[in-house]
Amino acid sequence: MKIAIIGGSRGTGAQLATLARDAGHEVTVVSRSGTAPDGVRTVVGSATDASVVRGAVAGVDAVVVTVGGAKGVRHQRTAVTRAVIGAMREVGARRLVVQSSLGAGDSGSQMPAPLRVLMKAVLAKPLADHDAQEAAVTASGLDWTVVRPTGLKNSPARGTWRAHEVGDGGTLGGSIPRADLAAYLLEVVGDDATVGRAIGVSS
């Protein structure tokens, strides 16, 4: 499979790029700095630049967006995701997987009550960005999946996770290792049963 990762220079995206490469996939990473794991194709430039994104997603089987926020930039995730959606439409790419956050959209009910209150108080601006990002994704007309992780940590992979939609009931935990989230994202990319679904994930 040919996979483009938008936000693959570090964090979860870099771990996903490494896992996908090691699994035999052809991986392209968009990186403003030009930084990316060894053995993957790198497209250097801003992920909000339409020409840069088109060059990255042309001819791929799937696109994964794992970008974070940018200091001093309002709704950076949304801007990047809209640029990606536009580029995918132009080149005819269909499969889109977007990393959002638990607490976005209607997923607050999946969080333990104390964490839900804390998220609303402390992370209101990032969650507003994720809300707008998810709205763009669900209106895109593409074959999308939204993945909503709980808090991310850099601890070693556990190799297990819990993944539930809002309607499944119950709550998810407070965190997940980035390595496990990356493994779950790679699983989702190839799973057509996740198309059109927003899925919360935690350890």
Write a short abstract of this structure.
Helix content is 36%, strand content 23%. It is α/β, with parallel strands linked by helices and 203 residues long.
What is the number of helical segments per DSSP (H or I, 4+ residues)?
A: 6
- CATH class category name: Alpha Beta
The SSE order reads EHEEHEHEHHEEEEHE
Mean pLDDT: 92
Structural class: alpha/beta
Question: How many strands in all?
Answer: 10
Count of the domains: 1
Rg measurement, Å: 16 Å
Between the first and last Cα atoms, what is the distance in angstroms?
A: 27 Å
> What does the main sheet amount to?
8 strands, mixed
The proportion of strand residues reads 15-25%
Low-confidence stretches: none
Give, in spatial order, the strands making up the sheet with the most strands. Answer: 3-2-1-4-5-6-10-8
The CATH homologous superfamily is called NAD(P)-binding Rossmann-like Domain
